[in-house]
From TrEMBL, chains A, B:
Zn(2+) binds at Q258, H261, D359, H418. It comes from Alteromonas naphthalenivorans. Substrate binds at S236, Q258, H261, H326, D359, E413, H418. This is Histidinol dehydrogenase. One of its GO terms (cellular component) is cytosol. Coiled coil: none annotated. Pathway: Amino-acid biosynthesis; L-histidine biosynthesis; L-histidine from 5-phospho-alpha-D-ribose 1-diphosphate: step 9/9. Catalyzes the sequential NAD-dependent oxidations of L-histidinol to L-histidinaldehyde and then to L-histidine. The gene is hisD.
């Protein structure tokens, strides 16, 4: 247990430090080579890498519509029903985010508009690995559907049968995803960013992944012929704020929910109650022994931090300094604390709001800024699947009204041609006036 | 003149190609060294670089409030009035973009919220160079003011007097910018991203610049301890769509407005009228000879492209393929073409809407995606100065209603602890029920 008030400034910083991210020169080089290979050899390179890393017998990168149908219909009724419920909640919450276009007359005769439009083509990346992630399909696919993106494609590595998990096929169908490609890793990111004969180029790539995927997303986002990406990534993390009234078993289960994501997951408990911290620690040990993923959660919990703060206000300051991806507030009248909370990707209020609720089904998006990025990036939302552009239209009167100001500013900046573009128009209007149009 | 329908697919691509951007290994290294130097030596490094590149006698990085006042009050009444008009229009258009928070009950007892909040600290970069740019101060400063960012600082290189242009001081005052620092280039970007004793660290950096500034913004945006940035940058560009009814002098003046920004500026005219193209070319020659910045505009116009399309619809397809930063539509009933126009940072409709209007005073933002980024990035707006986060709060009923779906999904993903976090809560509710609470 860390006693916050006893720490020096430097010790406080260390207590909240995150693990270094893999960004070695070696990783950059390997990923750069994969991207170059996909760029020069296209599908052949993507197939080669997929055979090497995922499924040796791969014949085609395309998962056929027939296979998708068969897989989707093999999902159990219970899981299909759960996906349906999650889909509906996530859709409702993202429907509510649909923005309104703006039209405004700023000066008589000067009309300005801001319009929102969906991105044309989006690429959704779903990692393979130890468990299928239909929830991530929903978190990426539903906003793409609600935004109205014309082309929604999904890349995910094939499993040992050369297919994908039925739940992923079912969730993808719900979201109207048009195509599923059997590839993962940096090669999938490169294919979506640059396009191959089989895999169309997309405008923006979304989704989580390992260090190769993260590095590849970064590299393609720096290329003008590449793709935009959702947000920078880091290991997942939770910070739980709890007082003496919190249920220690609940607190422990929320810390462990985070820990089971991966050995580099960060779990932090901050409380003003030493008794709560002690009972949460004991509950963690008890629950840990029952988990099937204990071998993943245990090393993560070895890096867990239990911080004792002098007061609830101090505990909130610790959370603000950390800027957690997930912030769980198990304090009496949790909502009343919101005005003091500065940074978090998503906030879970009260005893009945575990992280699992937002991870799966409450309606909020589970793609959130990690690694302190909650200070300057947003949680994923509908707007990330759209772009904004502006329109302006001046009438002759608008030009008469605004022309002199534009000319004065252009002149102050020494930009003659900008000034002349207005002067010529003002002159034409003056000439028209002279001819009796006044 | 390029006859579009005569070109092969490859020739079309070449006709719309943009100049390669400077991103040599040398540039990366130089900028990386500058950032490392600012990181290790702080203010001393920033002062050294500024003395070397901008003003040898620099004493302090801070432009005193007294100096700002004196400079601001020395602006002529005409220019001050023009800045006031531009400020009011830009403010009105960005005020209209203020988003509304969302609160939604997705399932009975499950409340989800999306909240918008201003970024805390933003760094605005204003280049030095041949002309002061008060308009850019407004385009960055007004949305920061409207968003409500607590800390708005501005970096700009000192001029030959060790000061800044009075117009910049005046515009900065209007926007409530709290501090102005006398530095530019990669060193200014590094200082804002990492912080020094004098210059506070910011959450996000905005603004245009040369290749050093652009590279520095990219490098700091890749660091977890760095800062977010507004958008990727490229040379400025305009595409003018015109028909036979367009005024050739207006068209020429709009092409030249773009060309005078820099020798790498791109100016493209696409028309279905050969006569209009010929008269626009002649008008460009005539107007060019009168411009004070002809030596900048002339090389840019040597790379200008005049494209003859078979029809207005074809001309729009050319524009969509190019995805211009600025799109000027000087075609009869320009507004009716909007549904066909796919990509542009900002669209200027009709004869009385020159690019200068949006550059300075109509109200729209002049920071726009260039280099084809209009396909996947937005024009700068109020939302870029804010971040979004979510909140969820389940009541006991909410947990009862949603718990089974969450558990089914967690189980399908093999995440026991996620399931357990819900199971424990469901159990507690069931126990409470058994005790007569039902």
């Amino acid at each position: 247990m860390i006693i916050w008030s006893s720490l020096s400034k430097l010790e406080k910083k260390t207590a909240l430090s995150r693990p270094a991210m893999a960004n070695s020169q070696q990783l950059k080089q390997t990923v750069g080579d994969i991207i170059a290979s996909v760029e020069s050899k296209g599908d052949a390179a993507v197939i080669d890498f997929t055979r090497k890393f995922d499924y040796p017998d791969l014949q085609s990168l395309v998962l056929s519509q027939e296979n998708i149908d068969t897989l989707a219909s093999s999902v159990t009724a219970e899981v299909a029903g759960a996906i349906d419920i999650a889909f509906n909640n996530i859709k409702a919450f993202h429907d509510a985010q649909l923005p309104s276009d703006i039209a405004l007359t700023t000066t008589p005769g000067v009309n300005c508009e801001l319009r929102f439009t969906p991105l044309d083509a989006v690429g959704l990346y779903i990692p393979g690995g130890s468990a299928p992630l239909p929830s991530t399909v929903l978190m990426l696919g539903v906003p793409a559907l609600v935004a109205g993106c014309d082309n929604k494609l999904l890349c995910t590595p094939p499993n040992k049968q050369g297919l994908i998990a039925p739940e992923i096929a079912y969730a993808a169908r719900k979201c109207g995803i048009e195509a599923i490609y059997l590839c993962g890793g940096a090669q999938a990111i490169a294919a979506m960013a640059l396009g191959t004969d089989t895999i169309p180029q997309v405008d923006k790539i979304f989704g989580p992944g390992n260090s190769f995927v993260t590095e590849a997303k970064q590299q393609v986002s720096l290329r003008a012929d590449g793709a935009a990406i959702d947000m920078p990534a880091g290991p997942s993390e939770v910070l739980v704020l709890a007082d003496e009234f919190a249920d220690a078993e609940f607190v422990a289960s929320d810390l462990l929910s985070q820990a089971e994501h991966g050995p580099d997951s960060q779990a932090i408990l901050v409380s003003n109650s030493e008794a709560l911290i002690e009972s949460a620690k004991a509950a963690v040990e008890r629950q840990l022994s029952t988990l099937s993923r204990a071998d993943i959660a245990r090393p993560a919990m070895e890096n867990a931090r239990y911080i004792l703060a002098d007061s609830i206000d101090d505990a909130i300051l610790v959370s603000n300094a950390y800027a957690p991806e997930h912030l769980i507030v198990q304090i009496e009248d949790a909502r009343s604390l919101l005005p003091k909370i500065k940074y978090a990707g998503s906030i879970f209020l009260g005893p009945w709001s575990p992280e699992s609720a937002g991870d799966y089904a409450s309606g909020t998006n589970h793609v959130l800024p990690t690694y302190g990025y909650a200070k300057n990036y947003s949680s994923l939302g509908l707007l990330d699947f759209m772009r904004r552009y502006t329109i302006q239209e001046l009438s002759a009167d608008g030009m008469r009204n605004l022309g002199p100001a534009i000319m004065a500013l252009a002149s102050a900046e020494g930009l003659d041609a900008h000034e002349q573009a207005v002067a010529l128009r003002m002159q034409k209007l003056a000439n028209a006036n002279d001819k009796g149009d006044a």
